[in-house]
Structure formats: structure tokens, C-alpha cells
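During the reporting period the student researcher (J.K.) took over the structure-prediction task from the postdoctoral fellow and processed the backlog of single-chain submissions. One of the processed entries is reproduced below for the supervisory committee.
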Amino acid sequence: MIRFLLERPIAVIMSFLALMVFSVIVFRLLPISLLPPIDVPQIVVKVTYPNASPESIEQNVLQQIREGLITLNGLEEMESKAGSEIGTVRLTFDYGTKMELAYIDVNEKIDRLTNSLPNDLPRPEVIRINTSDIPVARVQVIPKADVDQVEVSLLAENVLKKRIEQLPGVSLVDINGKRERIISVQPNDAALAALGMSQQELIEAIKSGNAELPGISVKDGQFRYYLRLATRVDTPRDIESLPVRSPNGAIVPLGRVATAKYETQEMLGYHLFGMNEGLVITVHKQASAKMNELIPELKKSLELFRVDYPQVDFEITQDQSSLLNAAISNLQTSLLFGGIFAFGILFLFIKDYRIPLIMGISLPSSLLISFLIFYFFDISINIISLSGLALGIGMLIDNAIIVLDNITRKREAGIPLFEACVQGSNEVMGALISSVLTTLAVFVPLVFLSGISGALFYDQAVAVAAILSVSLLVAFVLLPLLYWLIFRVGKRDSLKGEPKAFLKVLNVYEKGFHWVFARKKLALLGFFMIIPLGLGLSILLETEGLPEIEKPDATLEIDWNEPISAGQNRDRLVGLIQEIKDYTQAEADIGVRQFLLFDGDNSIQKSLLYLLFPSEIEKETQLELLRKRIEEEYPLTTFVLGDAPNAFDQLFSSNMPYYEVRWKDLKAKKPIEAAKMKPWLDDFPTENWEPGPGLQQESSVVFTLLADKLALYQIPVQNVQDQLSRLFGVFTITDIRRFGEITPIRLQENQDRFEDLLRTTRVYASDSTSYLLREFVDYRYADQYKYVTADRGGIFQSALVTSENPHGQLEDFIQWGADKNLAVETKGQYFRDQENIIQLIGILGISVLLLYFILAAQFESFVQPLIVVFTLPLGIGGAFLVLLICGATLNVMSAIGLVVMLGIMVNDAILKIDTINQLKIEFAENERITGGLLLEKAIREAGKIRLKPILMTSITTILALIPIIFSSGLGADLQRPLVFAVIGGLTIGTVTALYFVPLMYWFFDTVVGKKEKL
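J.K. obtained the following C-alpha cells:
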């Protein structure tokens, strides 16, 4: 095939040029994003029910929603959590479920449930979770001094949001910290009493004045007019001019008995930037958009905003594109230094500028054509796919060096140029195809990991497969063709003789070879002793998800665990920020967050503070001071203070506890009372536990209606409940609606203490006699459960176990529950981790089998593939040694480095074995040599032939990666463990390929090979 293609150079060149043109077009169309667009198989249903207790939300809302959603297709788990005024139902589906259809299905079922839910309940929100929910940036909108916050909120909602949404690539704009204007009506109780009126007459007058007659029209001859009531109110003055009629017939303007005015609605949450109140706009990108184009466009828009709206300051924070830029920068660095060092090493070992020139043409061509495969597999350019390309570049350089070196060797043997190109490519074709297949056999099965890990590996596997497939195409078609075209116009003797540098290396290698083969058994024993020692180093290495990267930012998640208002929450947080020095940036989301996509716990008592410092040194110092301040001044507070999560952390973070013991009272089907629960928890089988959400308590006031007195004085219960809701609730009389803008009219909330209000407020009996409300309402302070948690089986309470081996106490937990007539079950990330480990071991076993089958087919031997398998532990041990010396850990990046290193090591070993096999046949046919002499000569000669490509591949790869070690920044921090693993593995792996592979070949051929029957 190679001969056929080389005989048609113009057709091949035109075909490659056409591929390059299409690749350039496709590259411009590919989306660029931080992470692949992964559908996380979760949907959250959020419920907001003002003035409702956790028990009320659970009984009246969440229970009905759970029962209505239990029949969803693919539903794996369903959990709900009811808090004060807020409730959530989290639905987890089997991975692979079509989340678009599931989202539609959930919304349809919610619509059907509407009639069974309370009438005053707003429609539950349905939130679908995926990687595009992670905002690419946050825009801070801070009003300047003396600027109305409500006006800025309207500006953000009606103008800024829409202008940002119009930017190409923006999918959603979310806002937190908005303020809304209301009209408050403050009754004059003395004036009402003097006229014999109650608040009810006031309320009815306002409702009547804001009434509409939709759809009513009158006919006037041939014309028809639609009616509009002229009494409709628009302003506080309109409200005060409304007539109010007393029971005795007196009519007075409403302004005589009440005051109406504009006010800002009480805030349940705030947003701070520094210590200034403002708003934050989060920007989310479309899956098909280019992040590196979206962020500059957003910055341009902010420049225009600063000019158009000088009353507001704007700032971009938490720009997630820095991670993507780091990945792109690393790939560019890898290509640049890889090309420079490859050129230098090739010139040192081959001494001809034309061969590096061929490499310089083929490498960018391979990379560009790979993006064509991205397009057909619907893969975006993201951190995961770019890391796959970085994996493949090492193999790509390896393949190119091997083919060019083999063609050069054929020319040096006196074969004509054309035949040298054909034979040199054909000779290594089988070995290179096998090496690519073995690399894919190790890597591609990881796609079948369940969950997000498998989805992430899909992008990486496609990227690796793309660049390796293209590298084979380039190695067997473009490289021989370029070699033939470039060298046919040069001098014939330009490649005669080896460079002095290589001759010196060859001399050292041969001395080592003679020493090792003079002591075969001892050397082999030494290698086999090194294998367990190298692998045993893994015990000394720490393991983590992502490598430690320099994170100058931090977050404080805080729950005050006290019944404070949002304003008090804000004041406390401002006090904490004032204590911190040397911070570059601070922003906080306080209390209830207004984000549409927020799926966490919305609580007035909670806050999230983000801090950016100039460096990690200042960060550690200030965080320690902050920790001490919180512990000393707010002992009831629970908080988490640590590194700010990046996009990877947010994607892989789980709200699932590590190990949770749940129990249910199947008889009562309600939370067990705290007084009863406390002695039971004293007997809990382990001391290392924390209360789950269903056990957490908060202080509350419990009102009790005195039914006997209500009956005695003939006061309807409804009257007392209405009066309580007006006193302590958000009582909306009506809404003024103007073209989408809604202004509520509400009774003004009295700021007095509730005991004083009960003593001064009157309630009316059926005969219009009034009594003090305190006579019919009793109250007491009590600690109540903060949340009510439930799953498919009903309400549960739980303990979060923190001991080292929690599952070892499973029988104790079950026995503890049985003694108290409770049904006990265990849940948590612990079980998922166990499943993932078992699954990973199975997948890796399949990978090793595939690798063995491919090599057995390549070598036509059942034994020789074992030589390749035995080389892998030596490389892994070398990688572990360098990781340990450099203080690195076992993490995702070092694991990728291991795969890169093993791919190159396998490649070298396969080529060495393949060359020995070919030489054995050649020597047997031409020189009539047999037995041990034939074997040793073939091994020695194969070592000389493959020495140059093995050294060039290892040295170019190592030298290309060394600059990353001495670099700084986020990208270098991420890549450094990968570099250590590759350098350590290849350093040991080069020695392995040079000496261990020949020894193992000799061992299997002399000891096992004689018994093998083909």
C-alpha cells in the first residue's frame, strides 16, 4: 500500500492538503469550553412556601411531590429536605438516562400535582443540573453612594441582563441580590377603633379599588369598547384616596385611617462585594460556544456599561477561563519545546537538518487533522480533550522518529531511496499498529466507567484515539512521501556515517550489554527484585483527586445556627471581613439566594464568603485569624473554611455524605421526638459521628390556640389565624400589575417584639366585641428539628459516621436500631467508591487481556507478550520513585502521566521484540546460524538498531517536559505530577527497554520457548 501511495505523490499531497483545509474550517467551528457538556443525572425540585414550618412543608408539599414523582423512568434515588420556608426534592437517575426527557417528564408531573398542593404555594421550580450550570464568570454590580438600590436592581433585571444575554455564546444570566419595591399600608389602630372599623374593612377597600374587569366590553352602535375600571390604583396617593366604609355606614378616605407609602421589601438575602451591598450577575455559556471568545466579549460589554451607567461600578470575578487558558498554554508549550528538543536531538543523533524539517511539517499536520475527528464525534475543545491530545503527542513524536530512523537505516544499508522509504515503513508498520492498539486497549475501556468519570474519559479517549490514528496515517503515508520528496534532490552520501555523539552512546551501551549478558541470571534476578520494591513505593505515596495547585482564593461556608435575620447575618459577615487584611477581593452571598440555578440549602442563617489573596502565605495567615475569631465570638456556629472550589471541584464534589446511618420509625412515620431521641443517641454504637440534617435543632417559638376560650367567647378560629398571619407574616393585600412589573401592596409588618404585639392587638368576636389576642394564644420557647428529611420510604433521621472503617460496625448499627424498633439502612459515598474500585479493577483486567491478545496476534506467540507485560511494573516503579522524591502525590494528573509513560514504554518494547523476531528469521535464512548463537546475535543486533529511536524518543519527551517543572502558575501546578511520572517512568523504562527486554526474551526463548507449540 505504501508503494502504491508513493507512486502517486501529487494525489497524496492534494489529499492531505484537502484534509488540512477541512480541518481548519472544522477547527473554527469547534466549541471551546472548560469542561465537556456532561449531563449530571440529577434534577432538583425547589419549593418556596413563606411562613411555613419544616413539618408543614413536608406534610403538605414534599410528601405529595415524592408520591407523584416516584414512577419516573430511570429514577435511582429520591430524597427530600424540608426547612423553614424552603423545601427541596433531589432526584438522582441512572447514568445514561436522557435528561432532556426526564426534565420534561418531571415538569409535566409537577403541573399535574398543582391541584393537590396548597393554593397559596408558588409553582415549584424544577432545576436540571449539568456542567454548563457552572458560571464562566461573575459580574459584580455595585451602586455608588446615594444611588437607589431598587433602581439598580431594575437596571440589572431589565437592561444589563438582556444586554449580556445578547452576547454570542451566552445561554443564561442569573442574578442575586435584587431589591424590590412594595407599597406598604400602615393602619392607624386608634383611628380605626374610633370609627368602629377593623383592618378587614381596610383590606376590602384596597382590593375593590384595584379590581379589574378583564374581557368585558360594551357595544356603542357599530363600535365595541373594552371596559377598564377607572378606580384602579397605581400609587400610594391613589390608595390613600380610596373610600373606606365602616359598619355603621360612615365613609372616610383611607388616608384618614392608614398611611400608604413606597418601601423596599424586606430582604431575605444580600450580596456583598467587599463591604458594599450590590448585585451579582452570573454568566453561563452555551455548550457550543467558545469560552475564549465569550470572556473578551463580556469584558467589552462591561466597558460600555461603565460609560452608559456611571452611577454603578462593574467588576468581573471568578473567571473560570483561566483553567482553560492554562490547558491551552500547556499544549502550546508541549508542542513548542517538544519541537525544539526533537529538532536538537534528531540533529545530534542523525546530523541532517532535513529530517527535523519533516518532523516540523508532520507534527502540526497530525494535530490539526485530529480536530476533524473531534467534529465527527461531537467533542469540544476542553481541558479533558486537550489532555488527551497532550497524551497522544508523545506517541506521535515516537512514531515519527521510529519511521524516519528506520528509513534512514535502510538508506545507510545501500538500499535506493524509494525502496528505503517503502521497506523502512513496511518493516515497522505491524509493530507501530500494535503499539497504538495496546495504548488504546489500556485507555479506551475506561470510557465504560459509570458516572461522570466515564463521561470525562470519553472525551479523553476520543482525543487519544484521534491523534494516534492520525499519527499512523501520517507515519505511513506523509512521512515516507516527504522523506522521498526532500531527499531525492539532496546529496546521496549525506547520511553516511553516524554522528560522534551517538557513537559514544553506542559504545557505552555495548559495554553495558556485554556486562549484563555475561551475568544473565544475576541481572534478571536483580530486575525481578526491583519490581516489588518499585511497586511498594505506592504505599508511601499520598493519594488525592487533583494535585495541590496554588489557590490564592478561599471560601467560608457558615451557618450561624441562631434565629437571626438576614440583616443581622449581613452585619456579622461585614464584621468578619473588616477583620481580614491583605485580601485582594471579597464577595459574599448572604441568606436566601435568588439564583434560578441554586440547588443548595436556602436559609437566612447561612452565608458563603469568597476571598482572594495576593498569595497563599497571606491566605493561610488570614484564614487562621478568621477561624479563631469565629470560634471565640460565635461558639454555636458551624463553618467550613478552605480552598475555593474550581470547576473540577464543583463537578466532582458530592452532596452525599461519606457514610450515613439512617433509621425510620415505621409505625409513627414521623421524626422521633428530640426528648426520646437523646437517650437513644447516647447508646449509638460509635463515638465518631455527627448529627445528620434530620437531627439538627434550632430555637423556635411555638404558638398554641386556646380552643376552650375561643369557644367560650365565640371567636372563630379563622379570625385568630388571620390576625396572626397579618401580625407576623407577609400579608399581601393585592398586586399592582403594569406590563410585567408587579408591585405588591402589603400590610406593614410591625417591628415590636411578638409578646408586646400579642398584648396590644385585638381580635373580634362574632358580635364585633374585641378582645386582646394574648387571651387566646399561648406561647413557649422550644428547640425544634431544623429539617425534616425523607426518601422513597418516608421520613428518616440519620447520623454521619466519621470513623476510619465505618462499614465494619454495620451489625452494631442494625442491632442498635432493632433494639428500638427502628428500620436501619446505610447510605453514602463509601458504597459508591467501593463500586467504582471494583468496576475499575474489572476494566483494567479487561485492558490487560486486550493488550495480551493484541500482542499475541502481533508476535504469533503466547509467551512473548508477557515480556511487554513484565516491563510495565518497572516503569511504574520508576514513576513512583520520582513522585516520592519530588514530594508529589498519586492523583488524576500523575495517573495520566503513567498512561503516557506506559504507552511509550510499550511502544519501545514491542519494536525491540519485533526487530529481534525479524533478525532471527533473517539470520537463519542468510547466515545459516541456529541455536543460542543465532538468538544472542539477533538480540545484540536488535539492540544496536533500536538504540537510536529509543533514546531519541525518551530524551525528546523528557526534555520537552522539564520546562514545566520550573514554571509557575495554575497550569504548571496541574501538569507537574504528570511530568514527574513520565520522567521517572521513562528514565527507568529506557534502561528496561535496553537491557530488561533482551534478558526476558532470552529467558523465555531458552527456558519456555522450546516447549511452546505454535
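The committee noted the following: The first strand starts at residue 39 and ends at 48.
J.K. will present the remaining backlog at the next meeting.
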